[in-house]
């Protein structure tokens, strides 16, 4: 008991001195943008866009609401273009498409997780839109973050490539997210007001019950 108290107080004093040594400065100056971080982030962005292509593929394959098709096709195509842009940015940053960063692996895993959820046929469209809202939320956030950091990129060519890509994509990501959210709300609202489906024979039974109860009065 005594030993543990001693060792705790010893480690407390050690950790408090370590805390003091590593406590971040309160000044506004920050370290310059970390090139390794950027490379890893671009690898993650690429994986998110690739997952997005698969999610649009799935949504189109299973689509029941045909009035959603043209927008889904348009966003599918734009997402394929985003894959190319991410590849271009990653290569310019000195990264390699075949080596995924840990966050890229996680992003791929999450997309596969979304794709693996199985639902009954009547829920396919709503499930696919929900998956797209989740994926597009991250996709939109990625591009916003990249846009907020682009001025800090020191390497001139890379900065030019990233700036151009952000200019091309930012508005599209906004549209992707808001449209998918809006359509998900539309389908969910329709489902919320759909007449309950009756089992075979249930309708007849209900009519009999109603006429029976009329007789009782
Ligand atoms: Fe995208
Ligand atoms: Fe997107």
From the alpha carbons, calculate the radius of gyration and give it in angstroms.
26 Å
Q: How would you characterize the largest beta sheet?
A: none
Q: Number of helix segments?
A: 7
Tell me, what is the CATH class? Answer: Mainly Alpha
**Range of strand content:** under 5%
Principal-axes geometry comes out as elongated
Mean pLDDT, to the nearest integer, reads 86
At CATH level 2, the architecture is Up-down Bundle
Question: What is the CATH topology descriptor?
Answer: Ferritin
Ligands, deduplicated? fe (ii) ion
Count the beta strands: 0
Q: In angstroms, what separates the terminal alpha carbons?
A: 80 Å
- Uncertain runs are 1-21, 212-217
- Count of folded domains: 1
Order of helices and strands: HHHHHHH
Oligomer: single chain
Helix content: over 70%
Query: Helix- and strand-based class?
Result: mainly alpha
The CATH homologous superfamily is named: Ferritin, core subunit, four-helix bundle
Model description:
The protein has helices at 2-22, 35-61, 69-92, 102-116, 124-149, 156-192, 202-216. With 217 residues, it is mostly helical. It has one domain (33-192): Ferritin, core subunit, four-helix bundle (Ferritin, Up-down Bundle). It is elongated. The termini are far apart. The model is unreliable at 1-21 and 212-217 (pLDDT under 50). The chain binds fe (ii) ion (2 copies). One fe (ii) ion binds next to helix 5 and helix 6.
